[in-house]
Amino acid sequence: MSFSNLGLSDKVLAAVTASGYTTPTPIQEQAIPHVLARKDVLGIAQTGTGKTAAFVLPMLTLLEKGRARARMPRTLILEPTRELAAQVKEQFDKYGAGQKLNVALLIGGVSFGDQDMKLTRGVDVLIATPGRLLDHTERGGLLLTGVELLVIDEADRMLDMGFIPDIERICKLVPFTRQTLFLTATMPPEIRRITETFLHNPVKIEVAKPATAAATITQSQVAVSRNDWQKREVLRTLLREAEDLKNAIIFCNRKREVAQLAKSLQKHGFAVGALHGDMEQSARLAALDQFRKGELPLLVASDVAARGLDIPAVSHVFNFDIPHHSDDYVHRIGRTGRAGRTGTAISLVSPADQKSIQAVEKLIGQSIAKHESAALDAMPAEDASEAAEAPRSGRRRSGNRESNEDGSRGRRDGRRERSARPEREARPERAARPERESHAAESEAPRERKPRRDRDRRPSEDRGSGPQPAVASYGTSQPPSIGRPQAPRARREEDFEPGDHSHLPAFLLRPIRARA
Q1: What is the pLDDT of residues 310-347, one digit of tens each?
Q2: Do 165 and 272 sit in the same domain of this protein?
Q3: Both 143 and 241 in a single domain?
Q4: Which residues pair with 76 in a beta bridge?
Q5: End-to-end CA distance of the chain
Q6: Of 78, 52, 82, nearest to 284 (Cα)?
Q7: What proportions of the chain, in percent to the nearest 5, are helix, strand and coil?
Q8: Based on the structure, what is the number of domains in the chain?
Q9: What is the pLDDT at residue 148?
């Protein structure tokens, strides 16, 4: 079947033909006729099957008739991340080039003023992340009462990111008679509850079994120790020995690990970029653009890049960390082997990742083969160059405990450390300096009492050319702070001469009258 048999308009068919596509994917073939028939659709398909075009193409056909009003969009598409939202907008710009449609993007990292101006002009297609969309509605700059078609994309990712309460709020703001398209790769119980609540007699389209990887992806795993520097050495070896590696995405679980691994690869001569949620939006888009163009063959990323990013020519995916949620593994490796291409997914498995990798194998219903490599078999257990970096990057301290080189944690014991060290040779006593002898002689000699005006003067007011002795403050023996005047010592009773009552307040010096 071709696109011409799906009921799309002539303008949309011309745009599809200009893009070089002739045959629709299974999800597109089954979903497009139902969307054009104004039915609710529940689409379940693995990543990389063309779900975005399955709702973009029929939406362009439906939007040819009608006109948008100010601050009242006609259609609404919800995406979990900024990158996915920007990617969907690119699809509308690509297939809707021959149509005069206003497409607006509401994501974080962009000023509210520019977005308000676009909403004021009228929007046919509004693509937004839930948080920024609710910000505009609460400010009163956006009305959702004119939405005719609502698309909730990557719903399982919405669940992982905690957007389900926001989705429920948004569904209550749009009209009850709207058409809803619900697209997901997995069906957790929470997602199933939402579909039963907000979809009306949906047409269920299940192209592939949920949480399954494409058959064109070759999966393997490499066993490594828990040492971070050995993990990095194994990763560098895999990158160097891969003959068919064109570009690769390397996934880490934490944002901090993304930055550290990218810095380590750059240090060893790899052209690599980083992508995680704490980066500025401009930096995130720039890293993706450079990776798409081939300027950066390697991209170290968090799970921000695991969902829906359409980069068809990714040849390899490396899991530097095994994801905590098994579903994320399917989405990660789905960045390769897209559109019928072959791909390779390699996971680095440490002893702490055994439970996670077993959960992944249970989810996908198959065991992941061991990666065979002569270079890895001949690799030493530790890498000395990376071991030097371990105290700065890999070691974590908590209270009076510290991590050992093997990853175990033990309490500091000064006696044990001293017993393990070799006995030091006795050092010859240094000759006493003349300055110390002079100070000792002065301390033994009786001090002459100075006049009161000299004795009460602050140290900062009596600065001579020679060094000043440190004066203890408030009974302590700590040295004075550098760069600050030393506070004067509290005056004591022995500092005053007999009969000197100048330190007493005046009311205590008044004569007392005896009663008769």
Answers
A1: 777 899 999 999 998 888 898 889 888 876 788 999 99
A2: no
A3: no
A4: 126, 150
A5: 127
A6: 82
A7: 40, 15, 45
A8: 2
A9: 95
Which CA distances in Å does 209 have to 47, 186, 295, 357?
11, 9, 36, 20
pTM assigned to the model: 0.60
Residues 309 and 246 in one domain: yes
Residue 404's pLDDT band, with cuts at 50, 70 and 90, is very low
3-state class of 276 per DSSP? coil
Residue 474 lies in a domain: no
Shared domain check, 245 and 184:
no
Both 105 and 243 in one domain: the answer is no
Q: In angstroms, how far apart are the furthest CA atoms of the chain?
A: 127
**How many helices and strands, by DSSP H and E, does the chain display?**
20, 17
pLDDT category of residue 432 using cuts at 50, 70 and 90: very low
Cα separation of 110 and 107, whole Å? 7
Among 330, 361, 390, the domain-final residue is 390
* Position 365 confidence tier, pLDDT thresholds 50, 70, 90: confident
User: Pick from 348, 360, 343, 329: which is nearest to 217 by CA?
Assistant: 343
Within this chain, do residues 46 and 189 fall inside the same structural domain, yes or no? Answer: yes
pLDDT higher than threshold 90 for residue 2: no
